[in-house]
Amino acid sequence: MERNALCWCGSGKKYKKCHMVIEEKIQLHAEKGEIVPSRKLLKTPAQIEKIKASAALNTLVLDEVSRQIHAGMSTDEIDKIVYDVTTSHGGIPAPLNYEGFPKSVCTSINNEICHGIPDKEHILKEGDIINVDVSTILDGYFSDASRMFTIGKVSERAEKLVRVTEECVELGLAAAKPWGHLGDIAYAINKHAQENGYSVVEDIGGHGIGLQFHEDPFVSYVTPKGSEMLLVPGMMFTIEPMINEGSPDFFVDEDNDWTVYTVDDGLSAQIEYMVLVTETGVEVLTK
């Protein structure tokens, strides 16, 4: 762009006072052979404000699930909470009818890694651990986060897995810095998981988000420090490692073609943050 033209991002500033310095820096990294984001992966100020509104509703929904979840309720009741709260605030549950997914939320219990389908027959019981993955569309903008819940008194092994998973996400978040790399996040997460005797699922990861449910880049949690895409202000993606007790391998339910299970029947846990890379750090939008 011409230096004195208005910036492409719609900020109202001249290009030289807005994205020019960022894009020149991106070019320097590209010339060194690094993977860099295209302009379309950098959210504009107007888009960020709209996505933040979606993220605020996503957090509201998860907070309501947190208030109501308990032993004896069905996962279908969780689905109803998500649908009712989302739609009553003008939103749409992003999973509902997404590529044929039949419900408004994913509920993954114990040995289910992800994409568990809510059902009236799935009753939460004392000792269960469950991931509730909420994704929201508001005014056409997308947000996504998940929480782990322990139902009543859980075993020491279950408590440790959930605790270490949260630590992994926080360590990944701390490693995420502008002009660093996605691999920095992966290294921090994988290192902590392995130090605690766990494995990280390799073939399912995080993703860009905001304008669509799933965007580039794919966010791996098993790649080396300094590898993968450059982290640039304006990028938005999820940090959501899936931590397994045993093998990182999995299989998909043949009956519903969605629910992912641990191959060895071990427990699995996942926590998901949605983040925005800024010029000074990383901002958590919903968790």
> If you compute it from the alpha carbons, what radius of gyration comes out, rounded to the nearest whole angstrom?
19 Å
Q: Structural class per helix/strand content? A: alpha+beta
Estimated helix fraction: 25-40%
Beta content: 15-25%
Helix and strand string, N-terminal first? HHHEEEEEHHEEEEEEEEEE
How many extended strands?
Answer: 15
Instruction: Give the CA-based shape.
Output: globular
Uncertain parts? none
Mean of pLDDT:
98
Distance between the ends: 37 Å
The major sheet is characterized as:
4 strands, antiparallel
Number of helices: 5
Task: Report what the structure shows.
The strands form five sheets. Strands 1, 2, 4 and 5 form a four-stranded antiparallel beta sheet that branches. The model has no long low-confidence stretch (mean pLDDT 98). Strand 14 (273-277) and strand 15 (282-286) form a beta hairpin. The chain has helices at 20-31, 45-68, 75-88, 156-175, 182-195; strands spanning 92-93, 106-109, 112-114, 129-138, 141-150, 199-200, 206-208, 215-219, 236-239, 242-244, 250-252, 260-262, 268-270, 273-277, 282-286. With 287 residues, it is an alpha+beta fold.
